[in-house]
Amino acid sequence: MAIVFIENLSVDSCIGVYDWEKRIRQKLIFTIEMAWPNKPAAQTDDINLALDYAKVSQAVCDFASSRQFELIETMAEQVAALIMQQFNVSWLKIKLAKPGAVKQATSVGVIIERGTLTAENGVSN
Ligand SMILES: Nc1nc2c(c(=O)[nH]1)N=C([C@H](O)[C@@H](O)CO)CN2
């Protein structure tokens, strides 16, 4: 199985349920795992056959920093859809943390998994 991952991608976003939150920007931290058949890229050493984690990271930053939602659930869902559509990813897992949200906790957030793992998208060798 092959997974391309992005760990602790930090983005400032306008996110939150309460009125005061709609007037500020808060830190969101994305950790993303994406299934990808890595063998073609590894065998040819060709970035065009790889899932480019730099391009995915930029797309997530651009999206999350320019959109406004109340719930982190909505943000996670929309980012999942963006990655799956724009980068042809058929399975992914996103952990989205909002570290400043609960004073007594290091972090809070959601984890979602979308799509299916198949032999074609990376579950097997
Ligand atoms: N499951 C969720 N619970 C809460 C969310 C959220 O997005 N998902 N958001 C808030 C507030 O915006 C909070 O972050 C303010 O401290 C509360 N609970």
What's a quick, concise take on this entry?
The protein is of the alpha+beta class and 125 residues long.
Q: How would you portray this structure in words?
A:
This is 7,8-dihydroneopterin aldolase. With 125 residues, this protein is of the alpha+beta class. It has one domain: 2-Layer Sandwich (GTP Cyclohydrolase I, domain 2), CATH 3.30.1130. 28% of the residues lie in helices and 31% in strands. It is built from three helices and five strands. Helix 2 crosses helix 3. The longest helix has 15 residues. The termini are close together. The relative contact order is 0.22. Bound molecules: ligand LV4SOB2L. The site of ligand LV4SOB2L has 9 residues, from helix 3.
Which CATH first-tier class would you pick?
Answer: Alpha Beta
**Bound chemical compounds:** the ligand Nc1nc2c(c(=O)[nH]1)N=C([C@H](O)[C@@H](O)CO)CN2
Beta content: 25-35%
Poorly predicted residue ranges: none
Radius of gyration: 16 Å
In angstroms, what separates the terminal alpha carbons?
A: 6 Å
Q: What proportion of the residues is helical, as a percent range?
A: 25-40%
Please give the CATH architecture.
2-Layer Sandwich
The structural domain count equals 1
Mind summarizing the main beta sheet? Answer: 5 strands, mixed
Tally of individual helices: 3
Structure class:
alpha+beta
Strands of the largest sheet, in order across it? 3-1-2-4-5
Q: How much is the average pLDDT? A: 95
CATH superfamily: GTP cyclohydrolase I, C-terminal domain/NADPH-dependent 7-cyano-7-deazaguanine reductase, N-terminal domain
Per the CATH scheme, the topology name is GTP Cyclohydrolase I, domain 2
The SSE string, one letter per element, is EEHHEHEE
State the shape. Answer: elongated
Number of distinct beta strands: 5
